[in-house]
From TrEMBL:
CDD domains in the record: Delta6-FADS-like
GO BP annotations listed: lipid biosynthetic process
Molecular function GO terms recorded: oxidoreductase activity, acting on paired donors, with oxidation of a pair of donors resulting in the reduction of molecular oxygen to two molecules of water
Name of the protein: Fatty acid desaturase
InterPro entries from the UniProt entry: FA_desaturase_dom, Fatty_acid_desaturase
Any Gene Ontology CC annotation: membrane
Pfam families xrefs: FA_desaturase
Taxonomic superkingdom: Bacteria
Amino acid sequence: MAISDTTAYAHLTDEDVAALGDELDAIRRDVEESLGARDAAYIRRTIGFQRGLDIAARLLIALTRSRAGWLAGTAALAIAKSIENMEIGHNVGHGQWDWMNDPEIHSSTWEWDMVAVSAQWRYSHNYRHHVFNNIVGVDDDLGFGVMRVTRDEPWKPEHLVQPLRNVLLAAIFEWGIALHGVHSERDRAEGDTERISRARRTLVGKIGRQVLKDYLALPALSGRRWRRVLAANAVANLARNLWAYVVIFCGHFPDGAEKFTADVLDHESRGEWYLRQILGTANFRAGRVLAFLSGNLCYQIEHHCFPDLPSNRYAQLAGPLRAVCDKYDVPYTTGSLPRQYLLTLRTIHKLALPDRFLVATSDDAPETASERRTR
């Protein structure tokens, strides 16, 4: 079974967990009290850079005749789309910049440049995933409903094809997020057919606008070079999908990102919630450029502990948070990006097989563990 008692798993007393929570709350307050003009300038500068890069990339694609120009423009467009989705859209959607009271840069008004509906994603991601991170049967992001990533999920014959599902999900990741969001809205509506229909219509409308922009309007505006622009948009969207998929999976499914049973929710304290976020996520090492391109989600542990604090502060938060983990001997899972992704791939391919072909148990396996592993 997955972890049912986070305190026992971490070998901490209730007093230790309460003290850990207090220390992390203090770290949070220090950042909140220091938010100001520099942070506001950062997000506005980021949005300006992303929009400028997007325009420059599209001009390069449409106006140059060489293959090198097309490749450079397409790469720049893919980067611009990644920045918009991850460092801007994802983080604005978390409410990280709501304190600015800027109606444009606000979680309630920002609509990102992909087929998923921001409002639907905010419920499925901010609530269903972040609040119930890695709880089996509760967190819909655990395998995204199409893959088995823990032995706590019973094996089914359909899992044999999950390596292929993984490749498909990576290529169409924005569509997976879109469907994930509308399915969460369906569950949230609890049989309210009108509300469900409205959510589906909203998603269809968003898909229509995105398809019109990327695959009809912008190619049409380029005249005789429409094929060049159409291909660039398709390749840039694919590259953005693949990169977002890698970043998200490396933060949630490598060894050390633990899973939990719903029992942990019984009277879960603030300290226990922090502890679950730390145990249930993983970082990967990155310099400033890679961190920026990943939406600062190389700091997935910091993000899960403080999801509504601005992403430009995660590097600052990492040192104090890791010091707290070291103080209480709590695992702080990190590694290189290739290593974290290869561990994730190993889990996806291994758990495609029936349990009788697996060696370890659901209490003590590289990808799944519980407090019973040490009993």
